[in-house]
Amino acid sequence: MTGDPGDRFLILGPLSVWRDGVEVELGPPQQQALLAVLLARAGRPVMMTEIIDVIWGEHPPSTVVNVIQRYISRLRRVLPVDALVRCAGGYRLNLDADRVDLLVFRRRLAAAAEAAADDPDGALELLMKGLGLWYGQVAASVSHVIREAPIFAEVNGEYVSAVLRAADLALVTGNSERVLPVLRGATALAPFDESLQAALLRTLAAADRPAEALTQYDAFRRRLADELGVGPGPALAAAHHEILCAAPVVPASLPDRPPSGGRPAVTSVPVRPAQLPADLPTFAGRSDSLDRVTGYLGGSASTARLVAISGMGGIGKTTLAVHCAHRLAAVFPDGQLYVNMRAFDPSGVALKPQDAIRSFLNALGLAEEQLPASFEAQVALYRSLIAGRRMIVVVDNARDAQSARPLLPGAPGSAAIVTSRDPLVGLVVQEGVLPIVLGLLADEEAEAVLDHRLGPGRLAAEPDAVREVISFCAGIPLALAIFAARAALHPQFTLRHLVAELNVRRLDSFEQADGDPDLRAVFSWSYEQLGADAARLFRLLALHPGHTFGAAAAASLLGADPGQGRALLGELSRANLLSECEPGRFRIHDLVRSYSAELAHLDGPAAQRESSQRLLDHYLFSSLAALALRDPEQIHRARAPVLRPVPDVTVESFAERGSASTWLTNERRTLLAMINLAVALGADTHVWSLVSAMESMLRSYEYWADWKMTLYQALAAAERLEDATLQGIAHHALGYVHSEPMLNVPEDAERHLREAIRLCAGAGDLLTEAHAHRTLARQWRGRPAEREQFELALSLYHRVQACRPGSVPPDYFAYVYGQLGRYDTALDYALRAVRHLDQAGNHREATAWHTLATIQVGRGDVTAALAANDHAVHLCRRLGDEYAAARLLVGLGERLTVVGETTEARRSLSRALDILNRLSHPRAESVRATLRAMTAEPVSA
């Protein structure tokens, strides 16, 4: 809050601002209107869209955003420092509440409502002081067209409501004369408001002026007929009837007295319920959601404002809802209603809407004997009682839209927040509810939660332990709160000690001795609501090692068809045991997975093994299907023909090469885990096939560490299979990986390559033997033996070609002839290669064009080389593989450097660096260093 004792910000009448006791010039009319909008919503965000709607209506200028920003800049010069701040989607005006007449008015109204039951005289005094702040309609100096906007109409509505409450209290306390001037002023400001006219009639009658009351009624009746063509409504007619019959006058907002022998009349002032649970003093995080909820509910509307907060158990739905409701208490001074529907209570007994509506009616001051018999009539009475009042309703832990719908207010002025693990789609579609889906806390928000509960000093002392806690709790507020409570209760324990306990005890770490719900209990409430098939799928998901998965994987786990898999994932998502992270893909939280694993024993080891085998086959045959599109020449390496999936396995289908490549890349971590699963199941052929299916993707994207690890697993599987050919292939690939600059372990590279040559020669695998010689030549680059190895590779390629014509692709010959300096022959093979691969649209075609480019460099035709490499880069980009494009640019740049074409080399390397910088790739630094070594000119960071 900002402000100075001499500052005043007035909107209850003509708009004015006083700084240090001097009135400030507020600028042109639209700038004043903008300030009025911000003051009407002081302390709360106002969305840019609402500002535009209020000031410019349906036809704003094209430069409207710039105009608003200019007005904001000017207003900041006349307002206190930091008072006008930018927030998500709009602006917020933060001022000292004691300096804003509207906020002072609301505070006095809230205090009056609090005091009404015990001290009606004091409550009336507070109301009169609040009403004394008004000097006309809100923002009276602003254009009347703008003042018709809901944001100002609602503030005027607050004034009318306050006048009506003052009139009610005056009747109860016998102070009718005191409120007559206020009532007359209010009827002048709102000349056709029948509730004000009825209150004026009753007040005149109570002040022993029945004749004046009847005259007032007659004048108003004629005005209605003359100007609007209508007659008095029921409320005004009832007041008129009371005066004619000399009936005892009761406050207008209370139910009429029943006939003799009926239910007892209500004789107290309206009850102001305050049912909200206590706000959390250590609330932290969720700033975006908090601003969205408070900004939306505190805004203007022609209907009741409604918000639905959904999310998994323990994610903080109730905490956020209660915090928002407390923040909005001044906006809704007529009270707060709260009910816990207990939809996921462990007792299994949820609160029925019928019971909830009765509790609301009781809270609004009605005794049981005054309630209508039918549920529909009770709902209608509830909505009638809160119509015209500004109340906020919190419906917590609702099962679904149907259970929450009867409890929602129907008239403008009030608002409701509903929380549920169900997404409440029905309310969003039919009632236009604003959906707020709570995800996991970001790391900085999680740290703020710990900071509020443990203090910054304790966190600063053990930053590494704090990071581990945040990682383990993974954004679940309940987990963070339970951990923080344990740490606070045991200040003698280091956070490191408590983290070690987390890693050992998992969910047991979050047990609460006092019986309050812990994580396991919260998860169980959702689990117990599931159908049998969804519950079984939830238990089996513990077997899935990946962070995300789709319907085909879930269906394979369960042994069901994909349609059933999708339906069950939807059920789990609605129960918020899963989250749909992107269309068709789902994520399970690590702690939820721990709970799933605790339940896995219910299915028995045999069923778990069958599910694991189906899951393994799903990923193996899906990866083979992807490989067949991405790199069909590699499919023979995966030994696909000898494998068949077990029954009830769903295999992913891919429409084209791009989707297949994307799937392989996105599922990389899961496929790596599947290799471990295959090892555990003793499925060595699966191990080999999975590694082979991943090889081209791992090589293309240079996941060297992953590739090396999987190759050692493939080698071990080949040894267990006693297959010398597969062992030779694995040793060659390991030699290739160890020779790469990112790993560069020459002794391991040579050892594996020599072993590959030995095994392949013995097994008669001449093609892999040739590859091994070629890779060894690359490893020995610059040594005398380099040429000998290339010659051996070339000889073996020709032998293979002679035995099996067409089995050695021309680009293999092109590369080796080029390395031997026989450029004319190399060019012939390179041209054959690009013709052979024309329109293939894969990485092989791009590599063939790059090989052609390097050969043209050797021939001295730099122009042709640049054109060929540009085509290769273009192909990579069409494949969506920017890194491959950068790699080819680096390769050409290095080749151009060798032959002294420094200018073109630098240009090629610079293009590569631009791509690597965009990708934040670690190889960017080595390319940058190469460029710096080539010239002293500065290089872009």
From TrEMBL:
GO terms for molecular function: ADP binding; DNA binding. Residues 1-95 bind DNA. Keywords: DNA-binding, Transcription, Transcription regulation. Transmembrane segments: none annotated. GO terms for biological process: phosphorelay signal transduction system; regulation of DNA-templated transcription. Residues 1-95 form the OmpR/PhoB-type domain. Belongs to the AfsR/DnrI/RedD regulatory family. This is AfsR family transcriptional regulator. It comes from Micromonospora radicis.
